[in-house]
Write a structure and sequence with these properties.
With 250 residues, the protein is an all-alpha fold. The chain has 10 helices and no strands.
């Protein structure tokens, strides 16, 4: 039951964010958007450090100073993977409205897959008794990704509405973009017996993928223009909240 809830929580975050389209005329107010982006950034960074990178290092404690190698390789691989996805997702040339909608849905779906796998990796490690991973820590990662998905879902659905789609269609596409998260998590849990030996690399890979999103997408959007201090304040609150949640529950 705990696994099911943990895998569904990120999807609920995406759906909640996408539902903002029913309550707002056009876009999120800039101040609120910057605060949410900063908050999501802080949550993702804290979750990556305490629930992914630190457990990855601890798993290799028996090899001494070389314990840093798996998280280093995994982290850089995760960053490289997200970079490759970003490059592949760049649109080229003019597209029709339908094509733009389809491309946006595809890009976000690809973006969400590593996050779902991150939840699955942590839950698989917790169930397998790997290192210091616990079910509470896995739930903290799930909540962190869900919080990040709220502003992301809103930022996805609102432009779709502005492009001429109905509110319901915009909500539906925004929500479906997150369906790969529980599916990716289930896949990792299902393959847990094969995943456990390479768990340190996978944990760090997930952290790298999440860090890429924070550095390349969330922080720049939260920092540009006026009221960037709201993004910074949101980051601090999100980071501390997630740190406390992960340490206390873990």
């Amino acid at each position: 039951m705990g696994l099911f809830i943990g895998l569904i929580i990120p999807l609920l975050g995406t759906m909640l964010g996408s539902a903002f389209v029913f309550m707002m005329k056009d876009f999120l107010k800039p101040k609120l958007q910057k605060t949410l982006l900063g908050f999501a950034s802080g949550v993702m960074v804290a979750a990556s450090v305490w629930s992914l990178l630190i457990p990855s290092i601890e798993m290799g404690s028996d090899i001494g100073k070389w314990a840093v190698m798996p998280p280093t390789v995994g982290f850089l691989a995760g960053m490289g993977f997200r970079l490759g996805v970003a490059v592949a997702d760049k649109p080229e040339g003019p597209r029709s409205k339908l094509s733009k909608t389809a491309m946006l849905a595809l890009a976000v779906t690809i973006h969400n897959l590593p996050e779902g796998m991150a939840v699955g990796v942590v839950f698989a490690g917790a169930e397998g008794g790997v290192g210091s991973l616990t079910a509470a820590g896995a739930l903290a990662v799930s909540i962190g990704i869900a919080v990040q998905n709220i502003p992301e879902g809103a930022i996805i659905s609102m432009p779709l509405k502005s492009a001429g789609n109905s509110k319901f269609k915009s909500f539906l596409i925004g929500s479906l973009s997150g369906i790969v998260q529980p599916l990716g998590g289930l896949l990792v849990v299902w393959l847990a017996s094969m995943v456990i030996p390479i768990m340190p690399y996978l944990l760090a890979f997930a952290a790298g993928a999440m860090f890429y999103v924070v550095v390349e997408e969330l922080i720049p959007e939260a920092s540009e223009g006026e009221h960037s201090n709201l993004g910074t304040i949101g980051f601090a609150i999100g980071f501390v909240l997630m740190m406390v949640l992960d340490v206390v529950l873990g």
